[in-house]
Amino acid sequence: MRQSLIRLFTSSSLIARTTGTRPSPRLLTTTSRAFHIIPRFCAAYDMPQSPKIVKVEELPATEAKWIEFQKISWQDQTGKDRVWEAAARKTRGKAGVDAVAIVTIIRHPNRPPSTIIILQYRPPVDAVCVELPAGLVDEKESPADASVRELQEETGYKGKLSFISPTIVSDPGLSTANMQLAMVEVDLKEGDEEPEQALEDGEFIERVVVPVDELYERLVQYDREGKTVDARLWHWAAGYHAAKTML
């Protein structure tokens, strides 16, 4: 991968495309600063086609590798018997936590605090999703260790864990899945080279470094472009935006 300083994108037209051609070098000037955009060579580029859904069909339980459906029999507050349908991951390890999502804070001596978001196509919603870096917790791994590992694999950046949340849930009406939200800080020096991602086969992840103060507006723009923003990322960005503008 071509080496460079962190790229801070400030125009949606320059955001890397999961289906587009390799971007050429250019200089982007904003009202306050200019950044040089360097071409990138990674798994998210130079693909022979755009991702697309070929077929959707029912999945027999015997063929499901990652998830299972559960029939939960329970009694409500009046003692009435009820049934709930849910999906559950098969991969939950000893930590009791399925996954981690990572809020990254990048500190640089001459640039504003920034964060990393990723773009990847998600078949269940048939869209390019804008997300926090995230991943499953391995069988014998702690969520804290998983957060640092997943950040480095998906983005190339190695940082230090500064905070991790209690175990939380995203969609308790549908799934037993849970997660922890981690904050990882990355300290850079002037002249540091851009790290390489360590993506697995079949992963097509585009990373984007964006100033924290511009994150909310960037997500709004992504939505206008037809991308789908992950709820965890949106909630964090919207909360930060509300704290700055409404309180």
Structural commentary:
With 247 residues, this protein is of the alpha+beta class. It has one domain: Nucleoside Triphosphate Pyrophosphohydrolase, CATH 3.90.79. It is 15% helix and 33% strand. Strands 5, 6, 7, 8, 9, 10, 11, 12 and 13 form a 9-stranded mixed beta sheet that branches. A two-stranded antiparallel ribbon has the order 1-2. Strands 3-4 form a two-stranded antiparallel sheet. A hairpin with a 4-residue loop joins strand 1 and strand 2 (34-37). The radius of gyration is 20 Å and the shape is globular. The N and C termini lie far apart (43 Å). The model is unreliable at 1-42 (pLDDT under 50).
Keywords, please?
single chain; 247 residues; alpha+beta; Nucleoside Triphosphate Pyrophosphohydrolase; nine-stranded mixed beta sheet; two-stranded antiparallel ribbon; 3 helices; 13 strands; 15% helix; globular; disordered N terminus
Q: In angstroms, what separates the terminal alpha carbons?
A: 43 Å
Strand content: 25-35%
**The first-level CATH class name:** Alpha Beta
Which CATH-level-2 architecture? Alpha-Beta Complex
Would you tell me the structural class of the helices and strands? alpha+beta
**CATH homologous superfamily caption:** Nucleoside Triphosphate Pyrophosphohydrolase
Number of helices: 3
CATH topology title: Nucleoside Triphosphate Pyrophosphohydrolase
Please give the radius of gyration in angstroms.
Answer: 20 Å
The description of the largest β-sheet is: 9 strands, mixed
Shape: globular
- Outline the low-pLDDT stretches: 1-42
Order of helices and strands: EEEEEEEEHEEEEHEH
Helix content: 10-25%
Average of the residue pLDDT scores:
84
Total strand count, please? 13
How many domain modules?
Answer: 1
